[in-house]
Specification:
about 60 residues; mainly alpha; 2 helices; single chain
Length: about 60
């Protein structure tokens, strides 16, 4: 459960950081927005997976 909460809270921070990093390389537009969305989603998914891996008792088991 904690992984869901922490990854949700981390998403705006990661997206903001990526948006600032990509300003130098990509012009404002849909490509930069989609790239930020995809990379931030992947990063937060990895954070949640790492938390579930480190604390298996807290993980939500669907099956």
């Amino acid at each position: 459960m904690y992984s869901l909460i922490l990854s949700t809270l981390a998403y705006p921070l990661v997206a903001w950081w990526l948006h600032r990093r990509l300003e130098d390389w990509l012009d404002p537009g849909m490509v930069r927005k989609m790239l930020v969305f995809l990379l931030a989603s992947i990063a937060c998914w990895m954070l949640g997976s790492a938390i579930d891996w480190m604390f298996p008792a807290q993980a939500i088991h669907l099956l």
